[in-house]
Every structure is written in C-alpha cells, then in structure tokens.
Design brief:
The complex is a heterodimer of chains A (about 110) and B (about 110).
Chain A lengths: L4 E3 L2 E4 L5 E6 L6 E7 L5 E8 L2 E5 L7 E4 L6 E5 L8 E8 L8 E2 L3 E5 L1
Parallel strand pairs in A: 2-11
Antiparallel strand pairs in A: 1-3, 3-8, 4-5, 4-9, 5-6, 7-8, 9-10, 9-11
Chain B lengths: L2 E3 L4 E5 L4 E3 L2 E3 L5 E7 L5 E7 L5 E3 L5 E5 L4 E6 L8 E8 L7 E2 L3 E6 L1
Parallel strand pairs in B: 2-12
Antiparallel strand pairs in B: 1-4, 3-9, 5-6, 5-10, 7-8, 8-9, 10-11, 10-12
Classes of the chains: A mainly beta (about 110), B mainly beta (about 110).
Chain lengths: ~110, ~110
C-alpha cells in the first residue's frame, strides 16, 4: 500500500536556524497537510495545501512558516527562524480528495530546537 | 469554538473484555467525525469515520463507533480487546465548511493479558 514518507525522522537544530521538513505524499493524492504534536499534547493543525496554494492555515502558521511543493512530488514545511517552542513532532498527511476520504499520515519528523 | 474532548487520559482493559474510548465534541452544524490510532514512533492511522447515515460505523481492526447527536458523542468500541490494540487513540472532528481537523487530546489504551 502506498505510504506517505517523511525525512528526516529526527532533526536537531539551534534556535534561530532555518529548517526544512520534507514529505513525499501518496502520488495520486491532491490535498496535503501539516500537523504538529508537541510532546504530551494534542495534535494541532498547521496548514492545508491544494492546487499549489494554501487553502487553510491555523494561527500557529505565522510568517515564520511556509510550505512548498517544488517539484510535484515533495511537499516541504520550512521554519525560517526556529524557536524553542517549535520543538515537536511534525506530521505530513495527504488525502485523495477534498471530501472525507481518510488522511494518510507519515511517521513524522521529530524536531528538537536547542 | 470548536472542540473535542476525550475525558480519559488512559483506559485499562483486560484482554478479551469489551473496550470503550470516549469522545465528545462541540461543533456547529453536522460535523464529520473520525478516529485515528497512533502506535509508538509512528504516524496516525485512520480507523473509521462518520459522515452521514447509520449511527454505528465499523472500521479497521474490529473497531466500531456510535454517533449520538443528542449527546454529541462518538465513542469508540470493540467487543473483545487484544493486547495489540494497546496504543494512543485520537478522536477528531471536522466542520463541513473547512478542511482542518480538530483533535482530542488522545487516550492511551492499555490492554493487559
């Protein structure tokens, strides 16, 4: 069964540095998402992406965050200047359609900001 | 404001017994309801969903959930628990007018042999 893959599995960075989290969604899926899960806390929506543009974003997704689908396969989340509180597990998800088909999640990237 | 509540941080069940993981929600209109499961060091996996129709929905791994509109609940159930069901379970809700899922805090399910 096709899977969503995320790299790296763990990223350690210093405060103020830029990070790019990478995701390869399932190939025939059209909707893409980033969620994050701070350790011990609930999953939080960051952004949804369709037709090469952001369709929805949360309050968390401020100017420090950006998403891109540069080559039709990768879907990236960039954090421009990381803060300590950005430390979390970041999950990418893809969805076949904008209906209620299930989201397929990657295994996540654990981001540690020191 | 839209919200999802999973009132139990942890549920302990003996193997072979029935299990229930509770979820209540607060969303305007007719929400779409989902259950996802998270195994250690893994992403979230879809279990089941309610969109419309029969209030009892069946999903993966023998799980089912019952939508109760009057109680705004969507409890996850399984008639006979397995040790391999031990994981973190998340309830999520989506309002029809937007894309984002609103998540509960998760319930850790522990099945003891």
């Amino acid at each position: 069964e096709p899977e969503v893959t995320q790299t790296p599995s763990h990223q350690v960075t210093q405060m103020g540095q830029e990070v790019i989290l990478r995701c390869v969604p399932i190939s025939n899926h059209l909707y893409f998402y980033w969620y994050r899960q701070i350790l011990g806390q609930k999953v939080e929506f960051l952004v949804s992406f369709y037709n090469n543009e952001i369709s929805e974003k949360s309050e968390i997704f401020d100017d420090q965050f950006s998403v891109e689908r540069p080559d039709g396969s990768n879907f990236t989340l960039k954090i421009r200047s990381t803060k300590l509180e950005d430390s979390a597990m970041y999950f990418c998800a893809s969805q076949r359609g904008g209906d209620n088909s299930p989201l397929h999640f990657g295994n996540g990237t654990r981001l540690t900001v020191t | 404001a839209q919200s999802v509540a999973q009132p139990e941080d942890q549920v302990n069940v003996a193997e072979g017994n029935p299990l229930t993981v509770k979820c209540t929600y607060s969303v305007s209109g007719n929400p779409y309801l989902f259950w996802y499961v998270q195994y250690p060091n893994r992403g979230l996996q879809f279990l089941l969903k309610y969109i419309t129709g029969d209030n009892l929905v069946k999903g993966s791994y023998g799980f089912e959930a019952e939508f109760n509109k009057s109680q705004t609940s969507f409890h996850l159930k399984k008639p006979s628990a397995l040790v391999s069901d031990s994981a973190l379970y998340f309830c999520a809700v989506r309002a029809p007018e937007n894309y984002q899922l609103i998540w509960g805090a998760g319930t850790k399910l522990i099945i003891k042999p």
